[in-house]
Design goal:
This protein is α+β, with helices and mostly antiparallel strands. It has two domains: about 100 residues, no CATH class; about 70 residues, Roll (PH-domain like). It contains five helices and seven strands. Helix 1 runs antiparallel to helix 4 and helix 3 runs antiparallel to helix 4.
Length: about 180
């Protein structure tokens, strides 16, 4: 490939929201178990777990949304809830929770990569790579760190480039894309 770009991922916010939803559902399950628990020790343990969750949530929002802090916070919540599922529900529930949580972490770490070569535009998504040959493209433009891919079917993909990309000469890139697409305008 002649050019390779990593795009800014706008789905991270959705993944974080889903992770929070997962943890909220865990909190709701702990609350239901605490309410229905007959033993005092079980009820006390579940209340402590809920207080710990709320304390972690508040400390996270006070300390700010830095990526490293969020990863540490998610790991702490994962450990707390792994303990919860193991102690109060059982191993199978722990394995299901762990599988879902690890899948979310895997998807969250993936980056969308666009490769542009003589054969076309390759877009590597989470699970597959899609090749768009030049005869399907009307124009590909890079301007001010925004990559625009214009299809002949009147569809447009537009995304910001991530900060970790190497510097590129926009004029040379745009010239290369015009030559490949046959667009002399």
């Amino acid at each position: 490939m002649q050019y390779r770009f990593i795009l800014t991922d706008n789905n991270q916010r959705s993944f974080r929201a889903f992770t929070w939803f997962l943890f909220f559902m865990q909190l709701a399950a702990a609350g239901v178990l605490a309410f229905n628990a007959g033993e005092k020790n079980t009820r006390l343990g579940l209340y402590v777990l809920m207080i710990l969750y709320v304390g972690l949530f508040i400390s996270m929002h006070i300390s700010g949304p830095e990526k490293r802090k969020q990863e540490l916070f998610n790991a702490a919540l994962g450990a707390v809830y792994a303990f919860f599922w193991m102690k109060y529900v059982g191993l199978m529930a722990l394995l299901i929770f762990a599988a879902i949580y690890l899948f979310i972490l895997f998807v969250q770490q993936q980056k969308t990569i666009v490769g542009i070569s003589g054969s076309g535009v390759h877009i590597k998504k989470i699970f597959k790579t899609v090749l768009y040959p030049w005869d399907q493209l009307d124009n590909v433009i890079l301007k001010d760190n925004v990559l625009t891919i214009d299809f002949k079917s009147n569809t447009i993909i537009q995304a910001d480039l991530a900060g970790e990309n190497e510097a590129i000469n926009e004029t040379d890139f745009n010239r290369f894309c015009k030559e490949q697409s046959g667009n002399k305008a």
